[in-house]
Amino acid sequence: MQNFSQTQLDRLADIVRKTRPLFENTELLSSVHQKGQADFVTDVDYQVQSFLLSELAAFRPDIQFMGEEKDNSNIDFSGLVWILDPVDGTTNLIHRFRQSSVSLALAENHTIIAGIIYNPYTDELFSALKGCGSSLNGQPVTVSSCASLSDSLVSVGTSPYIHDYADWNFRRAKEIFLRCQDIRRLGSAALDLAYVACGRTDGFYEIYLSPWDYAAGLLLIEEAGGRVTDFSGNPPDCSAPSSILATNGSVHEELRELLEQHP
Question: pTM of whole model > 0.70?
Answer without folding.
Answer: yes
